[in-house]
Each structure stands twice: as structure tokens, then as C-alpha cells.
Amino acid sequence: MSVGINIHNVIKRYGDVTVIPDLSVDIKNGEFFTLLGPSGCGKTTLLRMIAGFNSIEGGTISFDDKVINQVEAHKRNIGMVFQNYAIFPHMTVRENVEYGLKLRKIQKAEMKKKVDEILEVVKIAEYQDRLPENLSGGQQQRVALARAIVIHPSVLLMDEPLSNLDAKLRIEMRGAIRDVQKQVGITTVYVTHDQEEALAISDRIAVMKSGVIQQIGGSEEIYTRPSNVFVSTFIGHSNLFHARIKKDGGMPKVVLANGYEIEMNNLKEEVQEGQKAIVSVRPEEFSLNPGIEAKIKTKTFLGKYVNYTLEFPDEMILPDQPSIEYSQDIGHADRVYGEGESIMLKPNPKKINVFTEDGMKSLIKDVKNYE
Predict the structure, then answer these.
(1) Sorting pLDDT into bands at 50, 70 and 90, what band is 101?
(2) Strand 253-256 to strand 239-246: parallel, antiparallel, or no bridges (unpaired)?
(3) pLDDT greater than 70 at residue 185
């Protein structure tokens, strides 16, 4: 039976190094929950704590109301899918999937029924008599998924399961994983550093940095209303501009360093006159209209759209950004621009995000700053 997972004030240390300082999150029963972040952010460490492979130095992890801190890994009733598949090379597909059921001493007739069902669910029934060496990477990953699910675990844990596959197979397999998870209805915790993958498959995403959760939300919420600059720049691409708040009795505005003003009807009430801020504009949130002048540095044609890298005066933009970009939708374009040309761009006030000067909190109404 699937369970909810309650993680309360957990701490993980390796000697004198604290990897996870104090982390709390509730994962719902049957939810597809993704831990997303750069390498070294603590996401795999947290997954291994849930699995029982890593010790817990503080706090509690519970399955429903049962604290599992001291429960041995093999008694937690989890299914685990690894990056490297970890299937047995000398066993056929069917034998690999049967393995966990044999350990549980399931009767042969029942075992055959369970294996037959799961082979159909993950779409590898026709390969059941093959050895892993005769399977593609995607097929091997389906075997690993079937073996993890067939035991009917309380929780399914997946650690970067698609990172060894090519781009086309990754897209195919993320759809398969999502479909299977919904079909069996099992609570799933999924670890990845791939933002597109996380956005495509998750019910909710926790974005992590240095062992700390920065934001939790659905894919659309995380992308369109990030809670801080880190989330804004880690999920997709964002262009960051210096700005200040202007409140002169009318509608509040953000004023860029060149004096360009953007009326904003969705800023939090507590914003102050003259307050310094950061404005984040995604490449698709610009339109070709009177607004800010930019010079095109490079142009990349990508079929549905053209991606331009832009040049603005240094005083307008935050330093150390990899690039400043604008994406032009070819389907609605009158013309494509060339390198060296100047264009006028208008940010969409309904879409852009505004953050405090330190980048730690959003100044947009209804955006929850995770604490």
C-alpha cells in the first residue's frame, strides 16, 4: 500500500560537514514528487536517507505516521531504480523481475500473475526471455522499473534514472515512467538535475540548493512564478536587470537603470518607494514593441523560433550572466533580424518577475517565499 512521506527537520552530516542543515517537506500519498537541483545540492543524499542507505543525524522521516529512522533499508518496503539500471546480466527479463518476489517467497502461480501484469504495464512482455545484453538502454530501464514496482512497494525511489540514455530515449522514457506511476498510483520520489525532465513529469517539484529547499510547487508555478533569483535562473533562462520601485500615488512601477518604466499591478503591498530590486525577464517575455533598445550579438535559428543573444549597457544588467536572450516566435514574425542590428523590446508586465535586491525573495503578490 502506498504511503505519504513526512520529512521533519532532518539533518545530514559527514564528519564536520553538514550537507543538509534542516529540511522539512511533506510528500502526499500517490504523488510524483521530484527533487531538482544542481550537482552536490543534497537531493541524492535526501533520497538515500528515505531509502535507509544513509544515516539521519537529526529530525525524523515517517511513512504515514510511522517513524522509520531506525528501520533497516530492507524492511522499509521501497522500490529503487538506479541510474545504472542494476539489473542482473545473467538473468532474463522475467527472471530479473521475479527476483524480489522470490525473496519474499511468493507462490509460483501468484508470482507468474504479478510478473505478467507488470511486464504488460511497462511494455516489455515481448522481451521477457531476453538477456539484458540484448536489450536497448530504454528497455533495460523498463526492466529496472518493473522489478521495482512488482513487489508493490510503499514508496518508489528513482535516482537520475534517465541520465544514461540519449535525448530521444529520455523523452520516451520520462513519458513511460509518468504513465506507469499514475497507473499503479505509487508515491514516487524522483531525483534529477534536468529541469525539462522535472517540469514534464512531476506533480510537484522541490528545487534545492546547498541542502536547502528554495521552492516547492507545480511545474507551471515553479517556472512562471519562481520564489527567488536562484530558482528563476536554474529553471529555464532568465535575464536579470537592475531596477528600483517607484510609487508616486498611482500604480507602482519598476524602473530600469536606463529610466524605462514598467507599470506593475501585482507587486506586494510592502514594496517601498525607491527600493532597489531585480527584474527577471525570460526570453519569451519580450515582444518587438517600443521599449528597451538592445543590440543583437548572435542569432540562432531553431525552427519554431529564433534565439537572439543581446547586448545592453553594463549598468542595466546584473554581472556574470551567461547571456541575455530574446526568443522570437517564427509563426508570428514579420521578419528575422541579423547580427549587429538594434531592436526595441517590451517586457510583458504580466509575466516578468521582481525580486528583492539580494535576490532572495519575490516581490510579486501571492508568490510564497519558502521557509
Answers:
(1) very high
(2) antiparallel
(3) yes
User: What grid cell was written down for 275?
Assistant: 527600493
User: What band does 4 get if pLDDT is binned at 50, 70 and 90?
Assistant: very high
Averaged over 329-338, what is the pLDDT? 92
Other C-beta atoms within 10 Å of 287: how many? 15
Distance CA(188)–CA(254), nearest Å, equals 41
Between CA 274 and CA 183 the distance in angstroms is 53
| CA 60 from centroid of its chain's CA atoms | 24
**pLDDT range class, residue 371, cuts 50, 70, 90:** low
Is the same domain home to 177 and 279? no
Question: What distances in angstroms separate CA 354 from CA 37, 253, 344, 369, one per listed residue?
Answer: 22, 11, 21, 13
Total number of domains in the chain:
2
Contact at 8 Å (CB) between 208 and 214?
A: yes
Domain membership of residue 184 as a residue range: 5-224
Q: How far apart are CA 102 and CA 156, in angstroms?
A: 19
Please report, as a single letter, which amino acid is at residue 55. S
Residue 163 pLDDT more than 90? no
| Residues 220 and 87 reside in one and the same domain | yes
Note whether 179 and 200 are within 8 A (CB). Answer: no
